[in-house]
From TrEMBL:
The keyword Cytoplasm applies. This is Uroporphyrinogen decarboxylase. SUPFAM superfamilies: UROD/MetE-like (SSF51726). GO terms for molecular function: uroporphyrinogen decarboxylase activity. Pathway: Porphyrin-containing compound metabolism; protoporphyrin-IX biosynthesis; coproporphyrinogen-III from 5-aminolevulinate: step 4/4. PROSITE patterns: UROD_1 (PS00906), UROD_2 (PS00907). Residues 19-28, 139-155 form the Uroporphyrinogen decarboxylase (URO-D) domain. GO terms for biological process: protoporphyrinogen IX biosynthetic process from glutamate. It catalyses: uroporphyrinogen III + 4 H(+) = coproporphyrinogen III + 4 CO2. Catalyzes the decarboxylation of four acetate groups of uroporphyrinogen-III to yield coproporphyrinogen-III. It is found in: Cytoplasm. Pfam families: URO-D. Substrate binds at R24, Q25, A26, G27, R28, D74, Y151, S206, H322.
Length: 342
């Protein structure tokens, strides 16, 4: 069989039709996901039950034939494996016990202890490698250290990441120690996913956009660079997609600075700008506004075609600028795919 399309794009090949997958493609917009989640009881039980996590990972592949499957798990399982309490409040989101001091950082479990909690995730990866169609690429993932730290410090999602910025300002050393601990644990976590069968790794830095100036270098670029260097030295050739969401002008040069093979773009940057500034360094993915999968209509098709055209001169994986939302219409995903694949 010829090499999988996603892997070819990640090596820098320009393909006549871009391969496609979607962030949060296994999720609440799909009735079959809601049914399996009900069977599991709650979101975390779904993440930690390998048969059910594999089942929901496969649902969007079976329905739409995406070129990649993304492991079903969550970026907040890692803080839990480091010793924090984690729970999800229905309709609100995640809650964690917090780390805000040097003593709190010292009390975390060592990186070497994470596998006790996370081994079901590796089992999900093994099941998926057996069950996925031969042409479908399996993506493993983790949160990037800054984004994971923002949840560990605040104990929840925050609009401006205020508590994390406050700890960084008040005790930069303790904050850096926390970021280093997450970095080390993330390397071990992703290595274990690769050993279990993940073929590509994605790092989600959802809150990268709130880091300014030197902080962006120290806490968005540097930990990502360290993770990618360690993964590529342990697993030569493993491709990595980095998503420094809302990095704006700092998308320029991000692949070169971190060693990422592909940069994922949110929908606040223009595709034409990114084609000139970001795609010149390698593969890009993303950029379609997830709202369009709620609204549908002519705009969904014209915007999809516009993004395909803008990135048609270089390596490109079609994706959204952020996750598909629970109110999206599954039929609109078919319309998007028809506009991409013709
Ligand atoms: C910040 C973040 C989290 N998780 C993730 C991020 C980074 C990407 C982003 O910016 O969205 C990443 C993530 N979360 C999930 C996946 C699975 C793979 C996939 O994309 O399909 C992935 C890759 C499942 C999930 N993670 C979550 C759900 C919804 C849970 C449910 O079924 O009730 C899913 C399918 C819950 C979650 N998990 C998180 C939040 C803030 C929430 C609540 C918000 C929400 O409900 O969308 C943390």
């Amino acid at each position: 069989m010829s090499e999988k399309t996603i892997l070819r794009a990640l090596k820098g090949e320009r393909l006549p039709v871009p391969p496609v997958w979607m962030m949060r493609q296994a999720g609440r917009y799909l009735p079959e996901y809601r049914a399996t989640r009900a069977k599991a009881g709650d979101f975390l039980s779904l993440c930690y039950t390998p048969d059910l996590a594999a089942e929901v990972t496969l649902q969007p592949i079976n329905r739409y034939g995406f070129d990649a499957a993304i492991l079903f798990a969550d970026i907040l399982l890692l803080p839990q494996a480091l010793g924090l309490d984690l729970w999800f409040v229905t309709g609100e989101g995640p809650r964690l016990s917090t780390v805000t001091t040097a003593a709190g950082v010292r009390a975390l479990k060592p990186a070497s202890a994470i596998h006790d909690t996370l081994s079901p995730v590796y089992e999900t990866v093994r099941i998926l490698r057996r069950e996925l169609p031969a042409e479908t690429t399996l993506i493993g993932f983790a949160g990037a250290p800054w984004t994971v730290a923002t949840y560990m410090i605040a104990g929840r999602g925050t609009p401006d990441q205020g508590p994390a910025h406050a700890m960084k300002a008040e005790d930069r050393e303790a904050f850096s120690t926390l970021v280093d601990r997450i970095t080390e644990a993330t390397i071990d976590y992703l290595s274990a996913q690769i050993e279990a069968g993940a073929e590509v790794i994605k790092l989600f830095d959802s809150w990268a956009g709130s880091l300014r100036g030197q902080d962006f270098d120290d806490f968005a670029i540097e930990p990502t660079r360290q993770i990618i260097a360690a993964l590529k030295s342990r697993h030569p050739g493993i491709p990595v997609i980095a998503f420094p969401r809302e990095a704006g002008p700092r998308y320029t040069g991000f692949a070169r600075a971190t060693g990422a093979d592909c940069v994922a773009l949110d929908n606040s940057v223009s595709a034409d700008w990114a084609a000139a500034e970001v795609q010149k360094d390698g593969c890009v993915q993303g950029n379609l506004d997830p709202r369009l999968l709620v609204e549908g209509g002519e705009t969904l098709e014209t915007e999809t075609r516009r993004i395909v055209r803008a990135f048609s001169n270089g390596p490109h994986i079609f994706n959204l600028g952020h996750g598909i939302t629970p109110d999206a219409d599954p039929e609109n995903v078919q319309r998007m795919l028809a506009a991409i694949r013709g």
